[in-house]
Please model this.
Amino acid sequence: MSKQNIILFGGSFDPIHLAHVNIALQCAQEREAAKVIFVPAKRSPLKNFKTLANSCHRSKMIKMAIDGYKAFEFSDYELNRTPPSYSIHTVEYFKGLYEESNLFWLAGVDILEDLPKWYRVQDLFSMCNLILTARPSFDFSALRNVADALGNDIANSIEKNIVEVVPMDISSSTIRNKISCGIDVSEYLNKEVYQYIQTHDLYKS
Model:
């Protein structure tokens, strides 16, 4: 019996938007994943900012956005840990839950610059595969720095697991900026998520 594939989708999701969901759907299809688990972080150790919406708000918005997708699940594992959130600890936790499964960590190619700085990154690659999403115009030369820092085996593994996604000009930071300027963002968000943001006056200042 073949092992099932499970994708861990980490990030701040501040807020979660339609591109997040579309990326998860595409990667789940490409890797024939049994499930995609959304794992919001309390705070990234390599980013000098705090989330603007608290953990409770972000959790509720994620649950709204993924409702109705049978393969999608939510986990508050990182939210309940003492920050900062290290990916290796999350992977170890889920490896314990799904010992007989293949784990994948899903992220965007923008992490390549900081990847060599990740805590216990070599151990991370020994326990899971990294799926990176990229636009069709992605410059694969960016992997040279990874090869120099972490070795050709890891760089080759990353290259094999790059998924070209349909470009959607959406980012959480852009959405937050638009909201703070009073610009409508309903086209970028799940309807319930948009209404939730409006009801709770999130990202207004």
